[in-house]
Specification:
The protein contains 6 helices and 15 strands. It is an alpha+beta fold.
Length: 251
Amino acid sequence: MTQARAALALAGISGIAALGGASLLSGSMPEQTLGSYATPLAGRLADQRHNAELAARRLDGAVVGPGEELSFNRTVGSWSRDRGYRRAPVSFNGTLVSAWGGGVCQTSSTLYNAALLAGFEIVERHPHRYAANYVPPGRDAAVAFPNIDLRVRNPYLVPVKIVARSSASTLSIRLVGAAQPMEVSVGQRLFGSASPQLIEVGSGVGWRVRNPGKQGYVVETLRTINGERESLGVDSYPAMSRVVDRADSSQ
């Protein structure tokens, strides 16, 4: 981010919004989508989907004022049983474990990408230990209540509203406001990849997949806003081993 754009961001003004600030303040600009993103729900377990959709419903309708910061954790709140969340698989040190709110990170990652494409400033974002299945490497945003958060800042002169929806196949988030959208593109530069190793437990002829494994990546994420390019950082995801139980088929 250049000093000029940083100064505009601190003032709550984007490159385009600064040029059209008078019309924005007068309220003559129609409301439109500033950035949107959708992630697939196909293949997600029922409880993962439930948790992702519940978190999305709590984001829906939230408004981020001009120059203000949105915290995913403060907006959504804790994902505990008493708030309607369910136990669902999450990855912990390479092992799938059941935890309250498993699947919520799909919602935070969907919001992250919508914010990226809307030109929002990224204040805080954390990658997962292993690459997520629902976004490209480098485009995920892990959250864990209360201390691992996603925080983004509205660079526009007007309030921006979150519109979150789900369908049979996708979870989508739009950022909507009465402003001219910025010209934004996001891409990745792949520096390396690694295939998962196969680990077989037992020596029988039957088999059961305990962990399907994941590809590893080292990737840089780049964003261009109104012709100005910035690096969002380099993320390194190790490969997760594929674990197969071998057992006697007669057991």
